[in-house]
């Protein structure tokens, strides 16, 4: 089975944020694809952490993207051919507590990385992960498209919109023409999957409550999100990176990677599906005072489907099932079954004739 046109085999690939939830899954997958993976990130901020459970033997460098000089030196040493930039302050509620840290990490951290990349000979592609929250959210019932206005009420969402503008500026100013690397941005919907223990996220809150034998408190049971398994947008990032490696600049732009409309579920509906698979889940809605969070958020990924040929592999029910299975396996054995789930995902993609799986 050939995955992503075998584009990553033997390539020097840099993943920022490799110790985080999405970054650790991506680093593992890239290593399976035969890439020479290096990572730049802070230490994991949760215990347990998916990164520690995986035990990947890759080049792992611990530094802060806000340290421009140290970052430049690290990138110079790695000499990446491909960069996947996932490092970020990724939590909305934390961004209210630390707005300057969020802006500095998400915007200036990305600027520092792109500055460092300007000095790398042989760099071919850069994929920058932002967020579906980068759009000006009008609480519409239809999905946001790549051409819709950027915005954001909270510091996190606004910082991701600013990161999109930053990436577009660098693409036009410093990475245009000749042998310059191609830069794309990727905006993903809400991801679920094993190995996430972040604060103020639904699935980690559920798992912690089950472990404590407590009810999970739900702030907004009627809020709607585009739920998808973490491997879905990662397959989009990898497919996008492979297209950039071909040197086709039509792909050096912004892309949405989200589920179909059937996966835009209310939080309460998501909880019911989760509880059907793990009956220990008990929850209650509470009027918890706090900063503003979006009530409805949908993503339109039609462009990725038509122009990249990307589409989701697992329906929402399967995504929830794999997520529950991962956490129940960890609760019983203390181990990650991530490798097995990537195997299942690849096999299902092949059966579904996914464009990246031949």
From TrEMBL:
| Superkingdom per UniProt | Bacteria
Matching entries from Pfam families are given as: Epimerase
Q: Which keywords annotate this record?
A: Lyase
Q: Which residue ranges does UniProt annotate as crossing the membrane?
A: none
Q: What is its EC number?
A: 4.2.1.45
**Species lineage, top-down?**
Bacteria, Pseudomonadati, Pseudomonadota, Alphaproteobacteria, Acetobacterales
| Protein's organism | Acidiphilium multivorum (strain DSM 11245 / JCM 8867 / NBRC 100883 / AIU 301)
For this chain, the family text in UniProt reads: Belongs to the NAD(P)-dependent epimerase/dehydratase family.
Q: Which GO terms describe its molecular function?
A: CDP-glucose 4,6-dehydratase activity
Q: What is this protein called?
A: CDP-glucose 4,6-dehydratase
Q: Known PANTHER family for this protein? A: DTDP-D-GLUCOSE 4,6-DEHYDRATASE-RELATED (PTHR43000)
Pathway(s) of this molecule: Bacterial outer membrane biogenesis; LPS O-antigen biosynthesis
